[in-house]
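To whoever is on call:

I kicked off a structure prediction for a single chain this morning and the downstream step that reads the tokens threw a length-mismatch warning. I double-checked the sequence; it's 188 residues and nothing unusual in it as far as I can see. Pasting both halves so you can look.
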Amino acid sequence: MMKMTWKISAFIILAPLIVISCSGDKPKSADQATREAPGTEQVLVDSRITLLEDGLTTAVIDAKYIERHFGEKNTMAREITAYFYDSTGAMTSWLTADSGFVNENQNVLNVFGDVEVTSKDSVKLYTQTLSWNQSMNSVVTDDYVEIHRGEDIIRGYGLVTDRNLKEYTIKRQVTGRIKNLPGNEEEE
């Protein structure tokens, strides 16, 4: 009788566990389960992120290391080189930076550490932080900046410019050396 009681007790305890583990929805794919798990990350090496607007490429961001945390809006990247394009598909400028964050939903790139931007006209911008917002076509920073155009150098703090580095405003403590004022170039 003792053996029978033990078997009935074991059945009563194990039966609900078996039913619970066998019931439920269809099994999820590995990709679906990974996407739904908060904090799960995806690590990519030597990868590329392409930002689009109305089907046109506006920026291509290459990075040595990309880390995505599912459920978060930003993608972290290291050793970044980004290329910016105009509405005709022509490259207008490129940048390099130590690291940054890409918000692919809003098409915003924030970069940090030894940031250098070069326009197709060879204008160079140097700073430590920079934010590019595609929808506003603006590049901004509150940090110290240097802009080099040929022999001209302008320095200051805070910057608002377009991705072509054609028109820019330095917000405060502006200094520099300008040898060639726009419109006063010598004709050959």
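Update from on-call: the warning came from a stale cache, not from the record. Cleared it. Sanity check on the structure: Residues 1-37 have pLDDT under 50 and may be disordered.
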